[in-house]
Structures are given as C-alpha cells and as structure tokens.
Amino acid sequence: MNSNPVEARMGKRRKRRGKPGTLEDARALLWRALTRAGELLEEEDPLLSLKAIHAVSQGAAAYARIVEVGELEARIAALEGQPGEEEGTPGPRLGRGAA
Length: 99
Description:
99 residues
C-alpha cells in the first residue's frame, strides 16, 4: 500500500506524458501535417477545402517560426563555440574616436 497516494498519481501522470519532443520532432510533424492539409486542398467539398486552406496558412506560419528558431539556435551555438575574451583572445578592436 502506498503511503502517499498523491505522489503515486503524479508519478503515473509523468509516465504517461513521456519525454518532451525536440524542435526537430515538431518541425517534422508539422511538415507532415502541412503535406496532408495540402492534399485536402483539392477536395470537392468546399467546406473541407476551406478548412484545409486555413490549416495550411496557420501551419505554414508555425513552420516558418520553427525553422527560424532552429536557425537562430544554430547561429547561437556557433557563436558560443568561438573563442572569446575570457579565453585570452582579444575582442573587437575599437578605433580612435573623435576626441
């Protein structure tokens, strides 16, 4: 018998949720959804076509943001990998100002 049933329930919830996905997982899933919504654009049912148009427009905006975030993360990682002042490398050289 569990002495703390609240903790037991919380543990079950954590197991059900699983690990959080990565940005790449989200990008791939969104791309698949966009592809499927794009196929539905040609449906005879006008209501379904309108829903597909909305899904594509919303999905494309989200996809663009995900791609942009991924590119920014890559750029930040590249910058963080460069030697900086703390490693003894001189920083940017400043010119003489108008004194």
